[in-house]
Amino acid sequence: MGPSAHDICAVDYLHFQMAHDLVILGPHAPIGPDSGTATQSAGGRLPVPLTAIQALAPSHAVETAHGVARVRDVVVTPALQSAVDALAQQYGVDVAIVDSARRLSDFKLVAMDMDSTLITIECIDEIADYCGLKAEVSAITEAAMRGEIKDFNESLTRRVALLKGLDASALEKVFEERLQLSPGAETMLRGVQALGIRTLLVSGGFTFFTDRLKAHLNLDVTRANTLEIVDGKLTGRVLGEIVNAEVKARTVTEVAAQFGATPAQAIVMGDGSNDLQMMAIAGLSVAFRAKPVVREKASVAFNHAGLDALLSLFRR
């Protein structure tokens, strides 16, 4: 889960003497009628007994609202970290440990991966389905996202080559019939945009989809790979520089600078190993329904909450 990024052995001891908030985030989907043990809140139910949350920091009050519980100004210790991990696993919730002094408005940019982060699908896998190769392409995609294939350029080139000859109309079908936004995506984007935070969609996927999402969601900047299309058919090639892990990180730095910010003022959201470099330079990294290697290194992991949980991480 997310707080494991605050590895007690890897971070200076003094960091853990600073005040932090524990934020317990309920699942995005409704959990059904109150069983009498769940913590009530104004906007939903958190499937954790209040007593279990209080036990994390007995001398601190617990605030609940909208399916979120907050314990303010705790000092993180190895024992607390272990208790937090156990609670998250037992109740199927996400627990974030955040700097008590930080506010969402301190950030200037939210940068997002597209496939399996902002949207629920891997577009290349769905495109491959139209030429009967989804299983083969999906296997390569999954291995690449888990970090088992180290060369993203090579894995993308292999997958795109399998699409050679496919009618380009398949792209429109994927967009219209299969592409769905991840839970909480639109709410999250409206919330950060209302604060004046700029948005970047940076993807190892394709411009066909990022361009349409940019228009639909009023995103500031997008960057992705361009599929070559000749005479209405995919050629099996990508045009120009491939957007790999290094390019993603460089894009975050460049776009942040474009808006007068540094990477430390960026929030980066991703799910796969090719997101790790841009997550590493960010002020806050969010692993969304992510592969284990990404969850381990992220500041926060949303395994159950929607993307809109970002709006609840920090105090108002």
UniProtKB/TrEMBL annotation:
It catalyses: O-phospho-D-serine + H2O = D-serine + phosphate; O-phospho-L-serine + H2O = L-serine + phosphate. GO terms for cellular component: cytoplasm. Gene3D superfamilies: HAD superfamily/HAD-like. Keywords: Amino-acid biosynthesis, Hydrolase, Magnesium, Metal-binding, Serine biosynthesis. The keyword Lipid biosynthesis does not apply. It comes from the Bacteria. One of its GO terms (biological process) is L-serine biosynthetic process. The keyword RNA-binding does not apply. Its EC number is 3.1.3.3. GO terms for molecular function: L-phosphoserine phosphatase activity; magnesium ion binding. Pfam families: HAD. InterPro entries: HAD-like_SerB, HAD-like_sf, HAD_sf, PSP. SUPFAM superfamilies: HAD-like (SSF56784). The active site is at 113 (nucleophile), 115 (proton donor). NCBIfam families: HAD-SF-IB, serB. PANTHER family: PHOSPHOSERINE PHOSPHATASE (PTHR43344). This is Phosphoserine phosphatase.
